[in-house]
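Discussion board: Methods & Data

I've been asked by a reviewer to show the raw model output for two of the constructs in my manuscript, not just the figures. I'm not sure how much to include, so I'm pasting the format here to get opinions. Each protein appears as its amino acid sequence followed by a line of discrete structure tokens. Is this the kind of thing reviewers expect to see in a supplement, or should I convert it first? Here is construct A:
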Amino acid sequence: MPPPRRAALRRLRDAGGALLDQALVVWMPGPGSYTGEDAAELSLHGGRAVIEDVAARLASLGARPAEPGEFTRRAFLAGRMDLTEAEAVADLVAAETTAQRRQALRQLEGGLRALYDGWATRLHLMLAQAEALIEFPDEDLPPDEEAGLAAAIAALRDEVAGHLADGRRGERLREGLVFAITGPPNVGKSSLINRLAGRDVAIVAPAPGTTRDVIEARVVLGGVPVTLLDTAGLRATDDPIEAEGGRRARARAADADLVIAVAEADGPPPDPAAGLRVVNKTDLAPAAGRQEDVLAVSALTGAGIDTLVDALSARAAALTATAGPPMLTRARHRAALDRLAGCLVRATRADLAELRAEDLRLGLRALGTITGAVDVEAVLDVVFSRFCIGK
């Protein structure tokens, strides 16, 4: 055996003594390992035959393949991390961009955990005060005890509400944004998405109405993953297929994080209600593209595309800004904090001290489901089932 936590070159052999591989072996006795248990790592040569033969030998000795997220789940159960940090491991593995990596690392370093642990400590104190007011109503408790408790509950209620009102920036960064390109037929929407994606995503043809369905392209803008949607042209039509394409375009645009309205340089202006307005084909009508609050581009020549990319990157960065306190990154967290917020609102309005204490208790439990501080077996299955195999 090599010394603990020092890589050593070793020959790996099968039961008959045949050489399987030369590998770097690291032995990590617990609790100084990722999971807190005794662990060993083999850094093999990457050939399929090597991996399969070594895995078969390990299985014959009683080992088995890890379940998705099993190592991180064991680390959580050993108390080496809470659920928010465990989820950050999955986010770090899945990160596509630098911004996603930074957000995951911030959560892995305990940003959310520290915030929620602080709230839990305050909730425990409030609950103790509430119980004291119930158990000792006739005792000589300080006269401002009741007012102090009410103020503390209201203060935490406002903090939780502010945390929830973050514009879903953390979730948007983790999941990626959706930008929809809309406009009348034949204004160059497909040419524009091809230019932004740097490849031929959509079919381009002179005939209007070529795009009938929503076409997607994944790009990175401002360090944020963005799905661009090329939608069908919007116009009145008797063609049922084109009409369905228009309906889908409107539906996807309504759910998008940003709508990019495109028009021709020598035609009617882009939709004034859109988040970003663009005129295309300025190569055909340069002067017509000079409109206030409108970006002028030519998808054919590339003129103005860099300015458009900069504008889109700025919007993406603004929608996912990570400055300030740690942000929510998952719908699971948001749902639990919604329950906590509801409990705190009810606690501030409770007519009976017993009801106020019960709402505080329920709020504490809701908060605990985020970090795993309460019995959350059902939550664990959901959290770790989405991990990579072996992580």
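Construct B, same format:
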Amino acid sequence: MVVRTAVVGAGTVSRAHLAGAQNNPDMELVAVCDLDEELARERAREFGTMAVTDFTELLDELDCLHVCTPVQTHFEIARQAIEAGVGVIIEKPATVTAEEVEQLQTLSREHDTPVTVIHNHLFYPAVRKARELIDAGELGHVKSVDTLYAGLTPPDQVNRGSWVFELPGGEFEEGLPHPIYSVLGIGGWPERDEDISAQTVLSTNYEEDFEYDQAQAQYVSAEGALCNVTMLSGTLPQRLHVITGSEKSLIVDEINQSLYEVDEDYTSSVIARSKKSLDVSLAQASSTLENVKAVATSRFDDSWESETKTNSHCAIFDEFVDAIEGDAEVPVPLEQSKWTIRIMETIRDAARPSREGSAADPSEAADTVLAEEPVTPDDEESVPADL
């Protein structure tokens, strides 16, 4: 089966979707759509496809639609596609509110149409390997997941546009979905809204009226794991996941795509403590060699199989084709996206003491969401620059 595909939204992030659809041997790129006709034509020329301004004209001939438009439009576009029986891939964040995600879940079930979201950090090679080890039961019972994303952009810097200043956390807040969905994808999601708590700090005085530039969220997963995600701006970059199991633990470094397994007690003796340094060095050297091999292979092997191993967007597209054909689950379930937005809402509440303990107001959330689709270095590159 060839999956007939179109991309709606011709901004910068659309290039990853257009290239993925173009290179996937199981997809046929039918068109790119944008309200800006000239921009649509520019992307169409770049990728050798057709340009349109109204995506609804295509629905009868599509199997899959990539949604790369401003987040405020995601729900309505996805709704129309689902009701037409067209599978949908949505850029993060999926919608403005968690309630909208729930509506998409209902529509997806009613129309038996798959929907997924681009949570691409979960498909980095080292993170995929960690998730495979967890799913295989090699860690035993996962007791905790601690995720640290440090060195995020401060709220007053403009990487994505001045519209970020409308967010309570400015530019800093726009980058938070990545670490939040990462801890959810590794540790599982909560059972209830009440299981989530959050703290925020405003560590610097800014000219603009921002409410926070550091954030931390915690919850207990439905499987009983203690999950914590810490997000900091104004520091040197770090992206670490420490996953502690009853039988084995993992330390994942996203920056250099290394994975270190802790499978023995290094505190038992001086010799054991010394051995840990050696084991860490060997693990890092092994990961470096694997990364070098992956880069070298990708330069000489332009096959789709090779691309799915190093390109996190393409890995999602590849799995979604299987879901459309009915052979697999979607790569990122909407439930994960729903909890990502729930945690974001909890963080916003924590930054507003006067509203502490109250539910997030969807109408207010709509006023503070992204004015255009986020484009970050992580959206443009499938893996960290080290690879």
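Answer (T.O., handling editor elsewhere):
This is acceptable in a supplement if you add a one-line summary per construct. For B, something like: The chain has 13 helices and 13 strands.
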